[in-house]
Structure formats: structure tokens, C-alpha cells
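Structure ticket #2291
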Amino acid sequence: MAPYKDMYSSNRPDGNNWRSRLYDVIFKADTPIGKYFDLLLIVSILLSVLVVMLDSVRSFQIGNEELLHNIEWFFTILFTGEYFLRLICVKSKIRYATSLFGIVDLVAIIPTYLSLFLPGSQFLLVIRILRVLRIFRILKLVKYMNEAELLIRALKASRRKITVFLFTVLALVVILGSLMYLIEGEENGFTSIPYSIFWAIVTLTTVGYGDLVPKTTLGISLASFVMILGFGMIAVPTGIVTVEMSLASIDARDRARPKIICNNCGNQNNDADATFCKHCGRKL
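Resolution: structure written out below.
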């Protein structure tokens, strides 16, 4: 139940006052009370998301409006208190408030308060959007997952490769959609190039809605090629991220392994069981 990597260790208040002790409880989980605090928040997040889901079920909502309203306000006040406690105990409040998880914590409580200022019937759609936005509280769970750091590092490392891959796919579906438009034409349902591109995307991703089907022999042949191509295309981003995750995992294990400092050259990356320095070759 350890939290996502302590991103704010340098934001801890100096000394051993009540703010620093509060910081250790909220941002760390290496103490019993810190673990209980994290457990309470995780359960609260899951229950609050469940309430939002139940609020969208019409059969459950009828007769339980007041109960759901009260429970929602309970969680909103709870998360508001958590947010202000985090602001109080950190050394740089702006740094926390503008961080990823600081923004997520704020977004988790804003919709309920905004609904107070939009009570009119003309704003019912906006209120519904605000209610749905509360579902993003589930993002608060990311900070409690140790593996999230590994996944984020892998995604960052592979973002350029995936971007190139997506641009390649985009160019491919434009070409395939345009070809299908020329082959089938409006008489077979391919009324425009954008609509044909939509068909290419649906077919290449192996979704297959079936609302648009080629009729000619050449069109069927092209569609078969696109379907087979789709299986190979799906594996590409998966392989890219998998490789980066493996590299990130190896790097994390390497950084966690105890090191020996060479007295000759000062190299700090020698393994704990090494006999000679990796850099200068001097005996350790």
C-alpha cells in the first residue's frame, strides 16, 4: 500500500515540528499511521466513485436523491480537508498546487462546489457534466501505485516512437480510405473520403462495426488486406512500450542495488560484489 514515489521529498518542511510530522503521515507510508491514512483515502476514493456511478442509475436514483446528495457532500468535505492538509504541511504550496497530483486533488473537489452556483434548470446539462467529472477522482489512486512510476517512465521514453507510429497509421488510413472511396464509390455506401477513412480506421483496428461493407471484388480484397494489416499494427505500440518497461525495470533494479565508491577515480556505479572498478580497473 506504499504510495507512488515520494515526489515531494524536497518539499518537506525543515525540522521536526508538527508540519513535518503531518507531512510524513500524508505523503509517506513507511509508518503505521501513514499506511492507515493511505488506506482510508483509497477506500474513500473508491466509494465516492461508486456513488457517482449509482447517481447515474435512474432506478436507484429515484427515492435516494437526498442520500446520494449527502454522501457526495461527505466525500467532498473529506477530500477538501485532505487537500488543505497537504497544502499546510508542504514547504512550497505553489509547487504542490501546480503539480500533477495537486491538480488532480483540486479537480476532485471543484465540481461539487461549482454545482452550488448553477442551480437553474437551464444549467442541468452543465450540472450533469460536473457530476461526471467527479469520476476523475479515480486518478487520485495513481499516487498509491508503485508500478505507476515504471509505467510513466516507459511511456515517456517511448512517446517519440509512438508518435511516429501514430502519424504513420494516420497517413495509412487516409490512403486506404481514399482508395476504397475510388473503388466502391457512393453507390456502395462510401459517400465521401472522410467517411471512407472512418471505415479504414474501424477495419484497421479490427473493431468492425459492419455498418459499411465493400461490395466489389477489388474492394473486398483491399478490405481483407486492411484486416490482416490491422493485426500487425496493433502489436507495434505494445512492443514499443513493453521494451521500454523492461529497460526501465532493469534501470530501477540497477539503481536500487548497493554501490561501492572507488577511492581512486571516485566512480560510484560499482556493484556491491565487484572486485575491480568499472571505470579505472583499480581494485576496490
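Closing remark: The radius of gyration is 27 Å.
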